[in-house]
Design brief:
The protein has about 220 residues and is of the alpha+beta class. It folds into two domains: about 1-35; about 50-195, no CATH class. It is built from six helices and seven strands, in the order ααβββαααββββα. It has helices at about 1-30, 50-60, 110, 120-125, 140-145, 185-195, and strands at about 65-70, 80-95, 100-105, 160-165, 175, 175-180, 185. The strands form two sheets. It has a five-stranded antiparallel sheet. Strands 6-7 form a two-stranded antiparallel ribbon. Helix 5 (about 140-145) crosses helix 6 (about 185-195). The radius of gyration is 25 Å and the shape is globular. The model is unreliable at about 1-40 (pLDDT under 50).
Length: about 220
Amino acid sequence: MPSQTRSRWTVSALLAVLTAVAVGACSTAATTGPGTAPATSAGGSPGSGDTAAAEQYCTTKGGMLVDRVATWNTNADPSAWLQLAGRWRVCEFETGSGDQATRISVDLTTLSSPEPTIAAIAYLSKVRTTSPPQPSANPADWSCRNDYLGASSFGNTASVGGWVDQSQPVFKVMDYCVFADGSAIDEFGLWYHANGAIRGADLAPLFAYQPGGKLPAMFQSGR
């Protein structure tokens, strides 16, 4: 008899546990719902760090927060632009005004992280740039793809793309050199800095990452 009682208790307890699990699963499903996406920070992928702190770092250093949208076919009339799913909150620095204004844009993590990103190392390395075989080609795009082995293309046709903020009076489209760790920097700012000119601001003293004399030898042909 004791054995039968223990068996009945064991079955009852098991059913209670299974019922609790089922109720919990239903509660979770009701909370998230089908197709509910995890929260993603505006500055990067989920888990990429403290976005609020990175945004504050940007503005404290004199930068401005800009929300940009990945867009294809930006060399065509704006009515033919194709807005893609990519969204990015970046930090941008501008100097000058009117026709003399220049700007540089960088992802928030690259600017604010005390740990290096590939984009930060690329900028600090001042790689010796090469020239495209066609003089009319974009030298910054060429340099990104060939000198830094980064990515900046929106497909493999003559139609190009960029990151757009229609509210900007001048710098509506920015082109980024994107690296394997997801870090990115304005390809023109990267190219000009490598050739001894500053656009917007010199990011070297603004980066939270300060390697001193121990910059990783990630890129060859440094100046």
